[in-house]
């Protein structure tokens, strides 16, 4: 019975020894099984702890910390294969290295390269006398006596090498080698996944950078019209944060949730599965061109890519160019008409004056002749304005005193102002530099300002006109600064009234030729357009500040000439 039990135990355990030796061997077997279980648990922990978004540095720290639970080693090195070149990338601890990170390992007589070529782990004792491998000198200097090298292979392609070194001469058990080979295999997968993740992240960043480099709006919309991806131009255009725009519906963003007057560009793309182009008008006056393209995943429609371009400024510029072309044509026509009419008009005025001298002042004929003469003078002024508008009038530039010019202008129109019981207030700077300008034309602008102010005060009790001169250096209006950044000082004359003001919708048109809100007998609509042309000829400009029922201020800015003295 005993013999049969002993035989049975020996068959189960493979142990043919005494009872004492049997228990010792059994204990060793249990310890080995326990150790293998611990190693498997270490591999499991290692796989769970390493994530694809983890940096190589953090990944290697996890490997070192887990391996030291079951394997004694003093140095761990990771080498990566890049463009068929093996380079050292990480060493733990980083003090145990003689090679710089990124340094290339030569293939000849290399322990690391032999492991790759043979595609097998290599267990190597470093000789204290001779070099078997290129790495021996380096390892000897680091006092490493035993090294284990494991190739890192993915899909039969080497991606690197894992090396463990000990400062003592150690004979690794085959089970340890198997365990470390498994660690190397899992590490290869983790490194490859992390590398792929990094490449994908970099590719996504590159695509996003390209996406954001487009100054127009780009967005991706899902099948429920929700915005799921967009570039930086979208929040900038709508003045919203990215969080406010993400997953917002198209109509809510573009139409504030209201039903668009025309069919939505997205609906047509979803219906037809073809690219579409639409022009939409927003409530804030913006005009957008929307280019919509269907997006497919695995052959199925998954969303819409929208390219949205704000063309408001472009259309305004086109209208401005058309208007400029019209004005150029009007200018040429006006110059021709003015020259043709000037000669007969001079004869009409001269002959009318002669007839008036010979006629009885109290007769009906004199009154008719006076009307003819006044109409002729008015026509001559219109022709003069037309010539100025077409830039064919003569500019005689000279040192000009704005204060003196303002007083001379008042002498010409002062009677009309006083007759309308309007108070004039002068605020003339006593230290105003002279300007290099055409005195006659500057006077024409000031007269135009004053007469416009007078007309704005019709029916206004206690009407007032303020005329102010001065200079501006530090607070130059942006329009002037952008026009000529080399000019740092401007002289100005401003004419301000407390009249009816200019309606906001009329402000953009006040400088357009022939635009006027006055009766046909009181204005031609050329005054301000001519004045602006004169200002441009002097490298200056005219700015308007107006509020309904509060009044208007017209300001002429002219650059101060460096040669001008103080008035």
Brief digest:
This protein has 567 residues and is of the alpha+beta class.
Description:
The protein has 16 helices and 17 strands. The chain is an alpha+beta fold and 567 residues long. Helix 13 runs parallel beside helix 14. It is elongated.
Gap between N and C termini: 138 Å
- The class by helix and strand makeup works out as alpha+beta
* Share in helix: 40-55%
Radius of gyration of CA atoms, rounded to a whole number:
46 Å
In CATH, the homologous superfamily of the largest domain goes by the name Histidine kinase-like ATPase, C-terminal domain
Task: Please describe the topology of this protein.
Elements lengths: L1 H12 L5 H31 L6 H12 L7 E8 L2 E8 L18 H8 L3 E4 L10 H6 L4 E9 L2 E10 L7 H40 L3 E6 L4 E4 L2 H6 L3 H4 L4 H6 L9 H8 L3 E6 L5 E11 L2 E11 L1 H47 L5 H26 L7 E4 L1 H18 L3 E5 L7 E4 H18 L7 E9 L5 H6 L6 E8 L29 H11 L3 E7 L3 E9 L8
Parallel strand pairs: 12-14
Antiparallel strand pairs: 1-2, 1-5, 3-4, 4-5, 6-7, 6-10, 8-9, 9-10, 11-13, 14-15, 15-17, 16-17
Helix pairs in contact: 2-3, 2-6, 11-12, 12-16, 13-14, 14-16
Attribute tags:
567 residues; alpha+beta; Beta-Lactamase; Helix Hairpins; 4 domains; 5-stranded antiparallel β-sheet; disordered C terminus; histidine kinase; His_kinase_dom; kinase
């Amino acid at each position: 019975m005993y013999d049969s039990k002993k035989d049975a135990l020996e068959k189960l355990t493979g142990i043919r020894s005494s009872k004492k030796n049997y228990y010792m061997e059994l204990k060793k077997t249990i310890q080995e099984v326990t150790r293998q279980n611990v190693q498997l648990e270490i591999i499991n922990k290692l796989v769970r702890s390493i994530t694809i978004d983890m940096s190589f540095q953090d990944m290697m720290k996890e490997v070192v910390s887990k391996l030291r639970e079951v394997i004694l080693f003093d140095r761990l090195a990771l080498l990566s294969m890049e463009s068929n070149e093996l380079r050292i990338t990480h060493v733990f601890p980083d003090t145990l290295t003689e090679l710089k990170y990124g340094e290339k390992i030569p293939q000849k007589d290399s322990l690391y390269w032999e492991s790759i070529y043979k595609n097998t782990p290599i267990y190597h004792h470093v000789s204290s006398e001779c070099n078997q491998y290129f790495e021996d000198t380096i390892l000897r200097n680091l006092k490493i006596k035993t090294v284990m090298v494991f190739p890192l292979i993915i899909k039969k392609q080497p991606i690197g090498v894992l090396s463990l070194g000990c400062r003592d001469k150690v004979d690794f058990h085959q089970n340890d080698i198997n365990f470390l080979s498994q660690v190397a295999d899992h590490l290869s997968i983790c490194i490859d996944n992390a590398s792929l993740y990094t490449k994908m992240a970099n590719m996504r960043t590159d695509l996003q950078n390209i996406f954001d480099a487009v100054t127009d709006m780009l967005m991706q919309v899902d099948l429920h019209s929700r915005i799921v991806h967009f570039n930086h131009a979208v929040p900038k255009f709508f003045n919203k944060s990215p969080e406010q725009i993400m997953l917002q519906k198209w109509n809510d963003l573009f139409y504030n949730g209201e039903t668009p007057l025309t069919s939505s560009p997205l609906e047509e793309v979803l219906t037809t599965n073809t690219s579409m182009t639409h022009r939409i008008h927003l409530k804030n006056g913006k005009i957008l061109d929307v280019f919509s393209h269907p997006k497919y995943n695995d052959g199925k429609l998954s969303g819409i890519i929208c390219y949205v371009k704000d063309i408001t400024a472009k259309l305004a510029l086109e209208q401005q160019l058309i208007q400029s072309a019209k004005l150029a044509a009007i200018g040429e026509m006006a110059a021709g008409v003015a020259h043709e009419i000037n000669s007969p008009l001079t004869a009409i005025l001269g002959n009318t004056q002669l007839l008036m001298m010979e006629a009885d002042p109290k007769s009906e004929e004199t009154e008719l002749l006076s009307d003819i003469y006044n109409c002729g003078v008015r026509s001559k002024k219109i022709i003069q304005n037309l010539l100025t508008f077409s830039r064919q009038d003569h500019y005689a530039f000279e040192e000009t005193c704005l204060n003196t010019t303002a007083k001379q202008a008042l002498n010409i129109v002062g009677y009309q102002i006083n007759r309308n019981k309007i108070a004039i207030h002068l605020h003339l700077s006593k230290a105003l530099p002279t300007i290099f300008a055409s005195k006659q034309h500057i006077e024409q602008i000031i007269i135009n300002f004053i007469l416009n102010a007078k007309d704005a005060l019709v029916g206004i009790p206690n009407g007032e006109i303020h005329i102010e001169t001065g200079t501006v250096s530090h607070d130059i209006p942006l329009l002037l600064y952008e026009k000529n950044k080399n000019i740092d000082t401007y002289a100005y004359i401003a004419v301000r009234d407390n009249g009816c003001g200019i309606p906001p919708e009329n402000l953009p048109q006040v400088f357009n030729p022939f635009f006027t809100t006055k009766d046909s007998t009181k204005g031609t609509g050329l005054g301000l357009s001519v004045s602006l042309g004169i200002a441009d000829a002097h490298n200056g400009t005219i700015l308007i500040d107006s509020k309904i029922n509060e009044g208007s201020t017209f300001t002429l800015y002219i650059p101060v000439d460096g040669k001008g003295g103080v008035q």
